[in-house]
Automatic annotation (TrEMBL):
The keyword Transcription does not apply. Residues 1-18 form the signal peptide. The lineage of its organism: Bacteria, Pseudomonadati, Bacteroidota, Chitinophagia, Chitinophagales. This is Micrococcal nuclease. PROSITE patterns: TNASE_1 (PS01123), TNASE_3 (PS50830). Keywords: Endonuclease, Hydrolase, Nuclease, Signal. Residues 19-140 form the TNase-like domain.
Amino acid sequence: MRTLLILILALSSVIARAQTYTGKVTAVKDGDTIEMLVNGKPLRIRLFGVDSPEKGQPFGEKARQYTSGLCFGKVVKARKESRDQYGRTVAEVYLPDGSSLNMQLVKAGFAWQYTQFSKSRDMAQAQTEAKAARKGLWLDAHPVAPWVWRKQRRSMTGR
């Protein structure tokens, strides 16, 4: 009985991770956060494995605009990876042509690979190539990763 319970729990974890959504992108909050309409309800998606510059950070608005140009108003698919501490669905998002929005952002230099979560060698290679070509945020001589920028802001505001 115990083995069956463990098997059920393991399978439910796999099924939860494999959950996919299809919907129209109705908002682009920033470079790595979108909102899509799924079955008539809004679903906020945080892109898995990438981190774009924040609002107010250099290239933050350009990252948001780039993301918007790729997906706003389009029907996309999102494959859920997890849920974050803010209740957002963390997902890989696929554009109508089948390409990964997450990967497109890294290739264009509008997001870092978030290595705390993503170990993708393809994404690491895309980031290396974007950096070498000085694309997007890599035009900056000393770009600051968003997780570093957020930590600096928190220490300045005491939050």
